[in-house]
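Two records follow; treat each independently.
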Amino acid sequence: MSEPSIFTRILQGEIPGEIIAETENAFVLRDIAPQAPVHLLVIPKTQEYRNVVELAAGDPALLTELVGLAHTVAAEHSDGDFRLIFNTGPGAGQTVFHVHAHVLAGGLEEGRLGG
C-alpha cells in the first residue's frame, strides 16, 4: 500500500489545509502557492488515480463529478469563468501524484494560453 498523499493527509486532518467545499467523493482546497486570484484544487477523496488519464479510464463518473464541482466553486468564488487544468506527469508540472484539478479564475491575462 502506498503512503498517503499530502491531499489525503489534509483530508484526514493530519496536516492543515483550507477545505472550502466537499462532496461524498471529492473536496476542494485553496492552493498554497496561487497562480491566479482564485486558485483552487479539486481532488477526489480516493488516491487510487495518479493522473487524469488514469481517472478517465478507471472512473469517468468521478471525473465528471470533479468537473461539476470545479464549476460550482468557480461560480461561488469568481464570476463563473475559469480554467481547469490537470497536470499529467512531472514534465507537465505534476508534483503530487494524486489526481487533482486546478481551478484558476479572476484577473487572468487575456490571450495567455488562449484558444
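The next record belongs to a different protein.
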Amino acid sequence: MSNFDEALERFQQVDLEYSGGLANHGPMGAEALLSLGHQAKIPALVDLYAPRLPPLPGGHFLTPSVREAARGGGGQRGDWVVTFETIVVEQDWREVIAREVPPLLPGLFAGAGHGLLRVAHAVRALEREDNAIRRREIAHGLAYWSSRFQTLPGAPGSRASEAAVELGEAIQHWPLVGDVGGRSGYFFHLAEGLSGWSPFVDAIDSLVLPEPGSVEAFLGRLCGCAASLYVDHPTDRIAYVHALTIPNAVRALLPYLSPEEGVVAAGHAMQAVGALHSIFGDRSSRPEEDEEVLRVAGDWDEIRYHAACSIQEHSIKMVEACWREDRLTADSIFRRAAADAALKIGGRGEAAQC
C-alpha cells in the first residue's frame, strides 16, 4: 500500500470535520502532495493533521426518499458516510459521480466548498489508480458535500442580458460588503450574511454563463481572476485560496458531467467565488512587495518544494491548483500566487475559518 493510500485510510477513520465546522483537509492535502511530486511528505502531514480530528460517528443507510430532506446543516455525517460507502461498493464510481454530483451543484459552497474539493481530489486519485480505499474517499467527499449542503443567494445567469460582460471586468466591479468587522468566523456562516443582499443577487443573476463548449475556458479565466484577487488581498489569503481551488476542482468533475451540467457547475463556481469576494474584497488592498516571493515565483520546482515543506494544507492545495492551471494556460499570475502561498501561508491559526 502506498503512503498516500495509508493516509486516506487513516483520514477515513476520523470525522469529516472538527471544532464545529472546520473541514478535514487531510485527504485533500495528501492528494495535492502526491500531485506535486512530494509524496514523501505525506506521512508528516498525517502525523501533524490527524490528531486534531475526532473519530467518525456511526450511522445508518439513508434511503433515497429521505436524502434530499437530510441535506445541509452539518448533521448526520455518519449516516451520509454509510450511505455513500454502500453505494460506491455496489456501483462504478464514475456512474456514482455522474448521478450524485448534479443534484449537489446548487449547494456547491458546502463547507466552504470542501465537499466539492474532497470529491475532486478523490476523482483525481482514482484516475491514477482504482482501488477500494480511493473509491471510499469518493463516498466521504459526497457525504461531506451532502451534510454541509449550502445554497447561496441568487440564480446564476437567470437574468443575463445579451450584452456579455468580460469576466475580469465583472470581478473588477463586483459588489463588496466592505465590513471589515464582519469577516471573522467560519466562511459558510459569513456567506449566510449575503442572504437578501440585492447587489450580490443582482450580480449573480446577471452573470453570463458560458456555452457548453467553453466551460473549460470560463473556469480557466475564473481561476486567473481568483489568483489575481489572492495576490491583491494579502490579509485574507485563506479566503482567496478557496476562490481559486473551487473552480479548479470543478474542472476535475467535468468529464463525468453532461455539457449542460458543466454550465450549471461553472455558474455555481462563479457564485462561490463571488460570495467570497463580496465578503472579503477591499478595493484599497494592494499586493505585498516581497523580493523572496518574486524570486521564488520564477521556479516551479522551488515553489513546490517550499509548499511541501510547509506541511500546511492550504499552502499545499493552493500551489498544486496554481501549478495545474499554469500548465493548462501559462500565466505569471499563477506562479506569483503560488510562490506567495508557499512562503506566506504557514501559521496554523490561518485555517480557522474553513
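Discussion point: The beta strands are 17-18, 22-23. How would you locate this feature using only the C-alpha cell line?
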